[in-house]
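Please review this one.

:::
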Amino acid sequence: MVLTILFTACNVEEPVVDSRDAFVGQYNIVVTGSVTFTSGTSSQVMPINDVGEITITKDVNSSALVNVSGYYNAKATINGNAISIDRETVTQTQEGITTQMTLTHSTGVLQGNTLLWESNILATSSTGSVTVLGGGKVQNVATKK
């Protein structure tokens, strides 16, 4: 009597990990930095110290994108624990002065429940017919709720 044993190779599929899952959720955000406006030979520094909330959700049309909404409203690309946020323009008017800030080159990382990123700013400030240009940086610290 001959006993034959057959071994069947078993392919164990690794679960697909979506790195966006770690980013999804609601966050409290602290934004600090400054913008320096220059007109002729004079300049003025506008400090930025603000708080708010953001929500990050998966973009259904891409396996790498998320949507950031709330304090900021933009799309962002996720790669592992790194985030790169698309250009976004924020406009606010206070006491008759309209300030428009475009956040460019926003990159950062997720460390545990804290999302850290820095953004370069190009800005214009207008009152009546006077417009001045500015630039600066902000640091963003967002903590998951």
Summary: The beta strands are 25-39, 42-58, 65-70, 74-79, 82-85, 88-94, 97-111, 114-127, 130-144. The longest strand covers residues 42-58.
